[in-house]
Each structure stands twice: as structure tokens, then as C-alpha cells.
Amino acid sequence: MKYEIKELPEVRVAYLRYKGPFGPAVGEFWKEVFTPWQKAFGLVGKVTYGVAQDDPRTTPAAECRYDACVEVSADYPIQPPAKETHLPAGRYAVAPFEGTGADVSAAWGEFFGQLQAEGKAAEGVCFERYPADYAMDPATGVFTAELCIPVKA
User: Fold this and answer.
1) Which of 32, 51, 118, 147 places its Cα 20 to 30 Å from the Cα of 82?
2) What is the model's pLDDT at position 55?
3) pLDDT score, position 84
4) Could you tell me how far CA 85 lies from the centroid of its own chain?
5) Per residue in 68-78, pLDDT tens?
6) First-last CA distance in the chain
7) Which positions fall inside the AraC effector-binding domain (predicted)?
8) 67 touches 51 (CB < 8 A)
């Protein structure tokens, strides 16, 4: 998998948490819960992020946590049900992704495996980054994102 090493800045985000099995249900969470919330609070047209908090290989499916996030300014007043967190600044391997929700898990597995084999993977928060003009092809379900994994200095 092709990737670039990039220094990414810290980002303040508002997020809503999904809990349950990864896969199609995460896409439904974005569509049915996160996107309507994002629209209601005037947060459309901003960079969004998906952050898996658990490794589905070691965490029971029902306990897996995933945060759907949107970038907000330092003075944006985050209100419940949203919560605040910061994605840490650092050195990341960033790989382009194009596919459907069903393809994301395999892409993550390939990317992690490659970085581990190269001895570059580091501990830290991994995330999907979606552009401010994010769109999914309604006919095919195909979308683009960047997969971001912390790497050693």
C-alpha cells in the first residue's frame, strides 16, 4: 500500500460514540446519527474523522467503540450529546483509501501489517480522515478517505 509520512497538527474535535460491532453498522451510525447531528449544529463542510477505540481482534464485537468526529475551532461550544477530544499532533503514515464501507477493515489490516513489517508502526491513535467536501457515490457506496497511523520518528 502506498503512503506518505506527514507531520499532522493537533485537532480539536466534537464526537459522538458508537458502540457495537464494526462494519456496516458504523456506516449506518454515520448516516442515521452523526450526519443529522452534524447538520443540526451547523458543522457541515468540515473535516471529519473516524476513530476506532478498540481492536476488534481482541475486543468482543459488542464492546467495540468508534468515535465519529468533526473538526471544530478552539472557541466552538461543544454541547451534549457530543463530547470533546483532541487528535494528537505527530508523525503519521497517511495512505489514501477508496472503496466501500465493506472494504475499510481489509485496508486497515493491510496497512497495519505493512507498517509493522517495515518496523515503522508506533503506539497511538489511528484514524480515518475525511475531506470537508466528503461525498459517497450513492450508486456504488464508494468514498475516499485517508488512513492515518502513528509512526516512529
Assistant:
1) 147
2) 84
3) 98
4) 13
5) 999 999 999 99
6) 20
7) 1-152
8) yes
**Segments in the chain forming alpha helices (H):** 24-29, 35-40, 101-117
Q: What predicted TM-score, i.e. pTM, was given to this entire model?
A: 0.94
Q: Check: CB of residue 30 under 8 Å from CB of residue 68.
A: yes
- At residue 109, the 3 state secondary structure works out as helix
- Give which of 73, 63, 20 is closest to 43, Cα–Cα: 73
pLDDT tens for residues 53-69? 998 889 999 999 999 99
Per domain, the residue ranges of the chain are: 4-150
The strand order across the sheet containing 48-52 reads 4-8, 90-99, 143-150, 127-130, 48-52, 65-71, 11-19, 83-87
Name residue, grid cell 458508537: 18
Q: Which residues pair with 149 in a beta bridge?
A: 93
DSSP-derived 3-state class of residue 100:
coil
What's at 119, amino acid-wise? G
